[in-house]
Fold:
Amino acid sequence: MLCHLCAGGLVVVPMTTRILVVDDEPSVSTVLETFLHRLIDDFEVVSASNGEEAVKKVEQMAAKRKLPDITLMDVRLATMDGIECTKILAMKGVKNIHILSAYVDQAMIARAVAAGVTSIIKKSEGYKTVAQKVADMARNLHHS
Structure:
């Protein structure tokens, strides 16, 4: 929640957490959204199925001054891999980018860290656990 002081006193304004999910499997964002509804209020999931689509959606969001608060990025994507997309989104001002991938190895971790990712989450942890991590991130965003 965000509070504003106005002439009538303190007004509580709900903060909507914008979550960008970039994955070539549409079910990923659908399942995460289902679990997130059980954990947090006031969030919006924006989905992109590849890197180019993610860049376009971020440009649209930036035009409205509403960049994603949290981005979950798969690595293996058509048109542009998730690491390259991460670099581009970071240059556009997107922060808090997390790799969400089934394929994690040392080379990928090194590339992801160099690209500026915040963390790497393994899909093998399960969507319930991933959703809990995202919910914790969302709570921390609005309480810091």
Observations:
- The first strand starts at residue 2 and ends at 6.
- Confidence is low (pLDDT under 50) at residues 1-5.
